[in-house]
C-alpha cells in the first residue's frame, strides 16, 4: 500500500519510523511518503493561509499550494482523505475499506481548514472523503491522520505479525472487547476470574461474550440496538 501525507508539519510523522509501521516500511509492505506543503509555495514567506471571505475568526488554507502538491501525488487509483471535524465518522468499517486500497493520500489542514474549492476540484476528478475521528476538535489534521493511518495499516496483510490478534478485538464484532488477564494468578489480593484458569474453552468463550455485552451496555449502549 502507498500512503502520501501532505502537511505543513512533516515532523509530526517522524514517529511512523517506529514500531510495527516502521517495520512494515522497512520491509516494503508500506510505501509511506510525507510532503511539506510549504515546498509548493512561491512567495518569500512561504504563505499557506489567508483570511476568510465573508469574515470570521481564524485563517483558511489557500488553494494554490494544495493544488500544486496534490496534482503531483494523486493518480487514477488514489483516494484522498481530508481529516476534518466536519467530515463523516471514521470507524473500524472505514479502516477496513481503506486497508484494501492501493493508494491513500491524506491532506492535513491547519487553521480553520482548506479552501472548499480544493475538495470540490478533486471530488470532481476522483474519490475524496472528509473524515472525522469524533465529536471534538483538534488543532489540525495531523494527529487525526496518524490515528487513521495506524487503524488502516494494521489491517494490511503482513503489518501485524499475528493476524488472529486482529479478529478478537473491540469493534470487529460490534462489541467492546472483554477484560483480559495474565500472570500472576493473584495480584494485590485480586484473583484472575476462576473460569479462565479451567481450560474449558467453550465456557471461556461464553464468559467472554457475556463480558463483552456487559461492557458494551455499560460504556457504549449506543452500539447495542
Ligand atoms: Cl479529522 N480533524 C480535526 N481538526 N479535529 C478533529 C478531527 C479531525 N476529528 C475529530 N476532531
UniProtKB/TrEMBL annotation:
<dbReference type="GO" id="GO:0005829">
    <property type="term" value="C:cytosol"/>
</dbReference>
<keyword id="KW-0819">tRNA processing</keyword>
<keyword id="KW-0963">Cytoplasm</keyword>
<keyword id="KW-0808">Transferase</keyword>
<dbReference type="InterPro" id="IPR029026">
    <property type="entry name" value="tRNA_m1G_MTases_N"/>
</dbReference>
<keyword id="KW-0489">Methyltransferase</keyword>
<dbReference type="GO" id="GO:0002939">
    <property type="term" value="P:tRNA N1-guanine methylation"/>
</dbReference>
<comment type="function">
    <text>Specifically methylates guanosine-37 in various tRNAs.</text>
</comment>
<feature type="binding site">
    <location>
        <begin position="133"/>
        <end position="138"/>
    </location>
    <ligand>
        <name>S-adenosyl-L-methionine</name>
    </ligand>
</feature>
<comment type="subunit">
    <text>Homodimer.</text>
</comment>
<keyword id="KW-0949">S-adenosyl-L-methionine</keyword>
<dbReference type="InterPro" id="IPR023148">
    <property type="entry name" value="tRNA_m1G_MeTrfase_C_sf"/>
</dbReference>
<dbReference type="InterPro" id="IPR002649">
    <property type="entry name" value="tRNA_m1G_MeTrfase_TrmD"/>
</dbReference>
<comment type="similarity">
    <text>Belongs to the RNA methyltransferase TrmD family.</text>
</comment>
<dbReference type="InterPro" id="IPR029028">
    <property type="entry name" value="Alpha/beta_knot_MTases"/>
</dbReference>
<protein>
    <recommendedName>
        <fullName>tRNA (guanine-N(1)-)-methyltransferase</fullName>
        <ecNumber>2.1.1.228</ecNumber>
    </recommendedName>
</protein>
<dbReference type="GO" id="GO:0052906">
    <property type="term" value="F:tRNA (guanine(37)-N1)-methyltransferase activity"/>
</dbReference>
<feature type="domain" description="tRNA methyltransferase TRMD/TRM10-type">
    <location>
        <begin position="1"/>
        <end position="224"/>
    </location>
</feature>
<feature type="binding site">
    <location>
        <position position="109"/>
    </location>
    <ligand>
        <name>S-adenosyl-L-methionine</name>
    </ligand>
</feature>
<dbReference type="Pfam" id="PF01746">
    <property type="entry name" value="tRNA_m1G_MT"/>
</dbReference>
<dbReference type="InterPro" id="IPR016009">
    <property type="entry name" value="tRNA_MeTrfase_TRMD/TRM10"/>
</dbReference>
Amino acid at each position: 500500500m502507498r500512503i502520501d501525507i501532505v502537511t505543513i508539519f512533516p515532523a509530526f510523522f517522524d514517529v511512523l519510523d517506529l514500531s510495527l509501521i516502521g517495520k512494515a516500511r522497512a520491509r516494503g509492505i508500506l510505501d509511506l511518503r510525507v510532503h511539506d506543503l510549504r515546498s509548493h509555495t512561491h512567495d518569500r514567506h512561504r504563505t499557506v493561509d489567508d483570511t476568510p471571505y465573508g469574515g470570521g475568526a481564524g485563517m483558511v488554507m489557500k488553494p494554490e499550494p494544495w493544488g500544486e502538491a496534490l496534482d503531483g501525488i494523486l493518480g487514477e487509483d488514489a483516494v484522498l482523505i481530508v481529516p476534518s471535524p466536519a467530515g463523516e465518522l471514521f470507524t473500524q468499517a472505514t479502516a477496513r475499506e481503506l486497508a484494501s486500497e492501493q493508494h491513500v493520500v491524506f491532506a492535513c489542514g491547519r487553521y480553520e481548514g482548506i479552501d472548499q474549492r480544493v475538495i470540490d476540484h478533486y471530488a470532481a476528478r476522483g474519490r475524496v472523503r472528509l473524515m472525522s475521528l469524533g465529536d471534538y476538535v483538534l488543532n489540525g489534521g495531523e494527529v487525526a491522520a496518524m490515528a487513521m493511518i495506524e487503524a488502516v495499516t494494521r489491517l494490511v496483510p503482513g503489518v501485524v505479525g499475528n493476524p488472529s490478534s486482529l479478529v478478537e478485538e473491540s469493534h470487529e464484532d460490534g462489541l467492546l472487547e472483554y477484560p483480559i488477564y495474565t500472570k500472576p494468578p493473584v495480584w494485590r489480593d485480586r484473583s484472575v476470574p476462576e473460569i479462565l484458569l479451567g481450560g474449558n474453552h467453550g465456557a471461556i468463550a461464553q464468559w467472554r461474550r457475556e463480558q463483552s455485552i456487559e461492557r458494551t451496555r455499560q460504556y457504549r449502549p449506543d452500539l447495542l440496538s
